[in-house]
UniProtKB/TrEMBL annotation:
GO cellular component, one term: M band
Gene Ontology molecular-function annotations: structural constituent of muscle
Protein name, as recorded: Titin
Start and end residues of each Ig-like domain: 62-148, 609-695
Length: 1051
């Protein structure tokens, strides 16, 4: 470098890389720089920096530019996110996750360099997903960038609770929310399962549900115990019996391929039935119909069921092995199948196929029950393959893998010797051998191999295998003498002839030891450990020789002769470096040496305590012993303390702690559930403190459930719930056992022994009976003590309803009556489900029920009555608790048609305060005499109908008085007969204005005068009734006019 405008160049750095930092410059000075390359032949020409540089601090605004805004990683894989950064002065870098400072662990690390910040996540978990923000800041400002990390995994569970809507006798609609964690990709489908709460078996409803809702149908009738010829049908009583008890049920069936139903049982009182004579393989639907005295209800259908056995065909037996091969027969043996399909194996079917053919044919005419069969009738010189199948109650299973082709012939030459015999493994008392098949089989199939052995100094060979040989091309010889040298040979056999391998020798010098590790170093000692050799040469390792070499010395010195895999070398000089090597020794000599990779500097080492947990959770069965061994390290030697559930661990005759330099051990004898908990080990030395936690689980039968509650009590059922045991025995609660007893008895009866939840509905109870229940939990290790409930009486929590209101006959004729009423003022706490109606003749004392079944409406039409008789009625209301008291009987009503209305109503006179009316009697009086009339008027336009006569009116005319002058009125008349029945009102008069009026007089001739008209030859006699058109209401005396018969017309 050189100051600006100066030619005095000085060397400021000599580097091997392509970058350097020049220091000790003067602030504010301007410098020139140039670079020269150098090799063995000399220096290059200098290359000068184009511009001079002023020595001063540069200020660059920080920047952060991630390569991508989101990263995806599969759970269990590693993720590395490298983010370029820039800025001067060098910015500080910080990371946050979801708004919280990122906590670095052994899995999650952040490393920074001059131009990058790198986030590394090892073995990613779903918790690593989220929004990561990297922030860089210097004196100028700060910048940040957000990166989304998506972890790909199976989704979390759907979000509950599951909502159950639209529940009916046969179906229910389920709704749920998607999982909060989708696994980093869209949910493809949901799997919905169901189970009867009396069992622990789940059945798939649908495995392809695309939405978060599903209607589950066919929930009521169940078909169980299905076999190829029979099944068991179960159902529940109807929720509503129609007002009368169920007398019996009708069971029908049909094949799904047909439309017609077939009667199975027309009269069954139970709620379960065994159906037989099904056709194997056919699919059936069953339906059950309830019957009471009023008729047959709606049927309830089952799901389709295929008539087949619950067990399957067995798996395949092992491949048959051949022996005793002759020109016309072969003996074959095999092993049982691993899975019998759920039913006992009844026999086997052995088949053969000629190499020149394509069809498999049976070897056995009768079912085979043995695992061995001699197949005869073979053709000499032909090759055959064989296979075998197992058979159970479900049928014949899959065949085994076929054998290789086997030639039917008598052996004529011995086979060649087995190839490549070698020792594959050995111990102090065993040797494992392997070989390959002979190249030449002697013209017959190899039937087996015989292994022989002898000690090296003996002459006699001893057979190790069975005399018939082994089929495999490997064998382990056991019970050998330790440190003895053996020779082995293998013989191949065909039908009666054999050939032998050369001898196989075992013992030799061992291989070198495995990896050497420095266990500990102090100011005067080094402790080493190493792994056993991969091969001990066929003889036991007797010792290991450890040698050392001080740094700068070429001589190796034996410093230890160890029997174990560890040695401590003492008497070393503090501060010196030493190299070490180890040699394995057996009876045959020494192995090659194995050196320690790096020299060791002898000095005291300080080390923070470390805990290497072998397991985080220990499990032991109650009554067994438990040992927890925790390896530890630390220099100086750390102090060890234990806690259980936050309190200092108390040592007893059962619980002991034993500490050593390298480990701390807890021994628990005869473990009990009191030993369950969190055990915490703490190591402390002058360098630091380390803590680790271990969970201990004792496997035992669970504790008792608690807090039994009667959530719902009714006359025939009680719904119970309880709390799960606080101690589950170290494993999942499989089920609960629920029992009941009548408090007048000491005998307990099992309600259910397979309750999977902490609730149950106990049905078929007797109303008014007091019950007590007891519940026990059960896991794989046994059943807990039971807990008893308080006594509970099976009764409805409400009463029958009160009597209906406002009972009356709304309409009556000679053939029927309409009875109506209102709902009871008190429903007893449960909704009214219907009514019952009774009637009687007024002269009778016997009430008769006239409603058939339960009436759901507030009215009843009674027919079949006797004309002229008077009837009374009373009504009862019913809810689920029963039938309440009846109403008071209504007034007697006669069975007659109502009389017709009066007709031809006319206004005959009007004054300023009265109106005179006249009408004709009804044409039909209802079968009884008309005894009077009721005249009503209404002031227009908004008045009400008011009665005008207050005494019985028998005439067909009436003067209405007390009216308002100039007002308008309307009038009608109602007839009444002797049965106290009123007709409908007559037609109205229409508006009538109240004022004096002058009208021509009118003559009204009454019926009694009309009979006096007569005629003769000489005259006509006329009788006239004259009525004044003014105020007069009296009828004048009759006036008689007589006219001559021949009076002229003009007169």
């Amino acid at each position: 470098m050189a100051p600006k405008d100066s030619e005095a160049w000085t060397v400021c750095a000599s580097v091997k890389g392509l970058e350097t930092v020049v220091s000790n410059l003067l602030k504010g000075e301007e410098y020139q720089f140039r670079v020269v390359a150098v090799n063995e032949k000399g220096k290059s020409d200098p290359r000068q920096l184009a511009q001079s540089v002023v020595a001063k601090d540069l200020i660059i605004e920080p920047s952060v530019r991630p390569k991508s805004s989101s990263y995806s990683v599969q759970v269990g894989n590693d993720l590395k996110i490298e983010v370029p950064v820039a800025g001067h002065p060098k910015p500080t870098i910080s990371w946050t996750k979801d708004g919280v400072a990122l906590k670095q662990t052994t899995r999650v690390n952040v490393s920074d360099s001059a131009h990058h910040t790198t986030l590394t996540i090892k073995d990613a978990t779903r918790e690593d997903g989220g929004m990561y923000t990297v922030t860089i800041a210097n004196a100028l400002c700060s910048k940040d960038a957000t990166i989304e990390v998506i972890t790909l995994d199976k989704p979390g569970p759907p979000t509950g609770p599951i909502k159950i809507d639209d529940v009916s006798a046969e179906s229910a609609t389920l709704n749920w929310e998607p999982p909060s964690y989708t696994g980093g990709c869209p949910i493809s489908n949901y799997v919905v399962e169901k189970r009867d709460t009396t069992t622990t078996n789940w059945v798939v409803v649908s495995a392809t549900v695309a939405r978060t809702t599903l209607k589950v149908a066919n929930l009521k009738t169940e078909v169980k115990g299905v076999t190829a010829e029979k099944c068991y049908l179960h159902w529940s009583h109807p929720s509503h019996d129609g007002g009368a008890s169920i007398s019996h049920y009708i069971i029908e069936k049909r094949e799904t391929s047909r439309l017609s139903w077939t009667m199975v049982e027309p009269n069954i009182q139970a709620i379960s039935y065994k159906i037989t004579k099904l056709l194997p393989g056919n699919e059936y639907i069953f339906r059950v119909t309830a019957v009471n005295k009023y008729g047959v209800g709606e049927p309830l259908e089952s799901e389709p069921v295929v008539a087949r056995n619950p067990f399957t065909t067995p798996s395949a037996p092992s491949t048959p092995e051949e022996s005793a091969i002759t020109r016309d027969s072969i003996v074959l043996t095999w092993e049982r199948p691993e899975n019998n399909g759920g039913a006992e194996i009844e026999g086997y079917v052995l088949e053969k196929r000629d190499k020149d053919g394509v069809r498999w044919t049976k070897c056995n005419k009768k079912r085979l029950t043995d695992l061995r069969f001699r197949c005869g009738g073979l053709t000499e010189g032909h090759s055959y393959e064989f296979r075998v199948s197992a058979e159970n109650a479900a049928g014949v299973g899959k065949p085994s893998t076929p054998t290789q082709y086997i030639k039917a012939c008598d052996a004529t030459y011995p086979p060649g010797p087995p190839n490549n015999p070698k020792v594959t493994d050995h111990s102090s008392t065993t040797v494992s051998l392997s070989w390959s098949r002979p190249i030449y089989d002697g013209g017959a199939h190899i039937t087996g191999y015989v292994v022989e052995m002898k000690e090296a100094l003996d002459d006699e060979w001893i057979v190790c295998t069975p005399h018939t040989g082994v089929q495999d091309t490997h064998y382990t010889v056991k019970k050998l003498k330790e440190n003895a040298e053996y020779n082995f040979r293998i013989c191949a056999m065909n039908f009666g002839l054999s050939a032998t391998t050369d001898q196989v020798k075992v013992s030799e010098a061992p291989l070198p030891p495995g990896k050497i590790t420095v266990v500990d170093v102090t100011r005067h000692t080094v402790t080493l450990s190493w792994e056993k050799p991969d091969h001990d040469g066929g003889s036991k390792i007797t010792s290991y020789i450890v040698e050392m070499q001080p740094k700068g010395d070429e001589k190796w010195t034996v410093c230890s002769d160890a029997k174990a895999l560890e040695a401590t070398i003492e008497g070393l000089i503090t501060g010196e470096e030493y190299s070490f090597r180890v040699t394995a020794v057996n009876d045959k000599g020494r192995s090659d040496t194995k050196p320690l990779a790096m020299p060791v500097l002898v000095k005291d080492i300080t080390m923070e305590p470390t805990i290497n947990l072998l397991f985080h959770t220990y499990t032991v069965k109650a009554g067994d012993d438990l040992k927890i061994d925790v390896p530890l390290k630390g220099r100086p030697q750390p102090e060890v303390s234990w806690k259980k559930d936050g309190s200092a661990l108390k040592q007893t005759t059962r619980v002991n702690v034993l500490n050593s330099k390298t480990s701390s051990k807890i021994t628990i004898k005869d473990a009990t559930k009191d030993d369950v908990g969190k055990y915490e080990i703490t190591l402390t030395n002058s360098i630091g403190t380390k803590t680790a936690e271990i969970s201990v689980i004792i496997l035992d039968k669970p504790g008792s459930p608690s807090n039994i509650r009667a959530d719902e009590v009714s006359a025939d059922f009680i719904s119970l719930s309880w709390d799960a045991p606080t101690y589950d025995g170290g494993c999942q609660i499989n089920n609960y056992v629920v029992e009941k007893r009548d408090t007048t008895s000491t005998t307990w009866q099992i309600v259910s022994a397979t309750v999977a939840r902490t609730s149950i509905k106990v049905s078929r109870l007797t109303q008014g009976t007091e019950y007590q229940f007891r519940i026990a939990a059960e896991n794989r290790y046994g059943k807990s003590p039971a807990i008893d409930s308080a006594p509970v009486v099976a009764q409805y929590p409400f009463e029958p309803p009160g009597p209906p209101t406002n009972l009356h006959v709304a309409h009556a004729t000679k053939t029927g009556m309409l009875v109506v009423w209102g709902r009871p003022a008190n429903d007893g706490g449960s909704p009214v489900i219907g009514y019952h109606v009774e009637s009687k003749d007024q002269s009778s004392i016997l009430w008769t029920k006239v409603s058939r079944g339960l009436l759901t409406e507030n009215q009843f039409k009674m027919t079949g009555i006797e004309e002229g008789l008077s009837y009374q009625f009373r009504v009862y209301a019913e809810n689920i608790a029963g039938i309440g008291p009846c109403t008071k009987s209504c007034e007697p009503v006669a069975a007659r048609d109502p009389c017709e209305s009066p007709h031809n109503l006319k206004v005959t006179n009007i004054t300023r305060n009265s109106v005179s009316l006249f009408w004709d009697p009804p044409e039909y009086d209802g079968g009884v005499k008309i005894v009077g009339y009721i005249v009503e008027c209404k002031e227009l336009p908004n008045g009400r109908w008011l009665k005008c006569n207050f005494t019985n009116l028998q005439e067909t005319y009436f003067d209405v008085t007390g009216l308002t002058e100039d007002a308008q009125y309307d009038f009608h008349v109602i007839a009444k007969n002797s049965a106290e029945m009123l007709s409908a009102p007559s037609e109205c008069t229409g508006p009538v204005t109240i004022k004096d009026d002058v009208e021509p007089p009118t003559i009204i001739l009454e019926d009694k005068f009309r009979k006096y008209f007569w005629f003769n030859l000489f005259s006509i006699l006329v009788l006239v009734l004259i009525q004044s058109s003014q105020k007069s209401k009296d009828i004048v005396k009759p006036v008689i006019f007589m006219f001559p018969q021949n009076l002229p017309k003009s007169t």
